[in-house]
Fold this protein.
Amino acid sequence: LVCSGWLFLFVPLVMLPIATHVVSSSASEVYKRRSWLQVRVDAWKVAEYLGDEVVIVATSTGAPLTVWLLKQLRVAKKVTAVLLMSPNFKIKNPFGFLLTWPLSPYLVHLLLGRNHSWEPESPVHAKVWTSSYSTLAVIEMQKVVDWARGTDLGSIQTPLAMMCMKKDPTVNANAAKNACERWGAAMKSRIPIRQNSDSAEHV
């Protein structure tokens, strides 16, 4: 299972985090796309060692990172299925494309500050999840998303199930739908998330 914050692969269960979601991550690691990809590789090596078949579940930015993993040699043939939850193939904010402009590091610091911080929901939440990270992480996130949107999803033959809330406040639901339609596997399903109220949450 690959999440934007964690990587779980059912083999038995393997769990590894993305740098921006780890309380112990250094400032230099937090916003390097390279470290995010390395997490995928490390988790895959463990999963490949433990079992012959793997089911990957990815949330948010874990979705394009999973696409990257499936494009690596000898990976896709050992993945039985993929479940993408609230996949980030485009962020909700229409100005996301600005994040990869040449001057984006300066603009991000100017508009968003150097760090993004928020209040944890509970002491346990604060213990296992970071509540402050460099805003430069959003630039690396956008680079991953841009790459995934430009890659050939039609060549991926791994069975897919996708779950996404139409009013997701963080990711673009139409982009997720489009990614599902482009996915090459004959066995695929897009599962809409029904809302019990007017509230909408990401993941």
Observations:
- Helices lie at 27-30, 33-50, 62-70, 104-112, 123-128, 137-150, 173-182.
